[in-house]
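[Automated response] Your request has been received and processed.

Submitted sequence:
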Amino acid sequence: MSFFEELKRRNVFRVGIAYAVASWLLLQLTEVLTGLLEVQADVGKIVIILLIVGFIPALIFAWAFELTPEGVRREKDIDRDESIAPHTGKKLDRVIILGLVAVIAVMGIERFWFAGPNTGEPSAAPTETAMQAGQPDRVEPASTTAPDTQPGAHHQESVAVLPFTAMSSGEDDEYFADGLTEEILNSLAGLPELLVTARTSSFHFKNQDLPIPEIAKILGVNHVVEGSVRRSGERVRITAQLIRAEDGFHLWSDTYDRTLEDIFAVQEDIAANIAETLDVVLNEEKRTAMREAGIGNVEAFIAFQKGMDAYQRAHTVEFPITVLPEANQWFDAALAIVPDLDSALYLRTDLYGHILLENGSNEQPHSAAELETAVTEIINGLARASRVAQNEPLRVIMEAESLIFSDDWSRIPALLETAFTLGYCNPINWMAEFSQPFGYASALAANQEERSRCDPLAGWPVVAASAAQIWDLQPEKALETAETFLARATFNPWVDDQRFKAKLALGHWNDDPGMFGPNPEGSNYSTPRVIDAYAASGQLDQARAVFEDWRATHQVNDGDQLIVSAILGERNAANQLAARIDARVGGSLALSVAVSSCNCGAPFDLDATPNFKARIEEAGFNWPPVSPIKYPAKDW
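Generated structure:
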């Protein structure tokens, strides 16, 4: 008998097949239990190693021994005529068949139950229409994600990274978990193959117990990452899962038990595993980009998270300047450790812009020393941030914003030609107010529409987009943009203000009782917005009465008085106010904001503001701007 036939007779082949089938089933069970019990990720690797090591001994055992009614006996001790190997082989055949049936069943369950119905081609990244149906799509200010927005572009997977749950209760553990979440988010956001939901929208679901499919539908993503973090001294346990949104199936999960020194290697590993699971091919260049996207220091990203918390609180109060110094303390603490942290460099300049705006509009006068510091800080801060910006359009935005606070606007138009380049979810701050009236509304609108798709629950991109659409003489689109957001997200008073302005531009002040009602709580209007409704509808006496009643009990800054004077047709008063603003430090910013906010063309005569006039002429901007909202009393 040949060696091959002897292998068959002794059931060596059958044992090998049965071993392989049983090993596959055991690995599936191990993967499920590892995820459910949150045991160490190394368990799966250990099982694989043991199974590989055991394969050869199993074959040797099948060759050297035989199962008999009396038990296991050595093959050489059994008479060939008394061997029951053929009978044992039939039993093994049945075991193999049952095992293969189990394999097919497991694969079928995964394919047809967990994977859901076959939809053919993978779904494309959410479009504007999808957003309107309640399915929006994806960094905080320094995000450099470059979504593929060109017609006919390849399919782009979309993913949201939800805030990791802090399972321990140390003083900074929640900030630590938030920081780790953002590190992973930013690492993934650097990959052009992925559409990654920005921080603002992902963190909206913090401490909310909503089903993953519901969260994914709101964010317009196909996949969700969630996890937990537990700290104990220098030890950290991190669990992470990548979940397919349509059915909740775990595409990947792992658990890491490491020290704080190893935390950033874990972050990179999690991001890399998620990317590879979503079929992103990672070369060394992409791995380097992912690595450099993070902060890379535990103390720094805890400080940055505290700064972000204060920064966001600052923009929910009437006077952001009361909270922004706290945010800057934390940003500066982070920058002391990581000097080129672009987000912190950019965000910390906001304080100084508000100081200059307050001074220019006479909201809150500041000392000469404070103003000198503010001008230096915002110009140098934006210049420093632009040097470490992670893409060219973001660098240009920061450089252009720094020039707003300078005495030379001549280079701004050239910068604005590329600042709003599509393909990046870049932030803007003062540039939104500045560029709308002077010929860049269309580009700004498209840019902020894209950013809104990246950050679907953030109100500011919607405010900027709808404001730009009004200046672009598309009030219908502005109204749709605002109402779509209000229908799908938590009420945002600033977005409602834009809805109000769009209705004024359309002349729809009579089809909504709210047009003549009080400001919503948290409105961006510093005066009753019903004044604008009365002025636009020609009810000037009512507008003046409301304004006088308001001014009797509230401080009204020069910028707001300028706007009211303009829409009521009081040209001389508007020019006098504009001249006072123009003479102050920060005056050009305050006048730009007044022009942008009024939506009424030129609220004042340019000759009344020699400093502002010099800036407009340097830049070559057209004057007067268009007038998106028509106020009957304003005849200039």
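Summary generated for your ticket: Residues 111-154 have pLDDT under 50 and may be disordered. Residues 85-114 form the longest helix (30 residues).
If you did not submit this request, please reply to this message.
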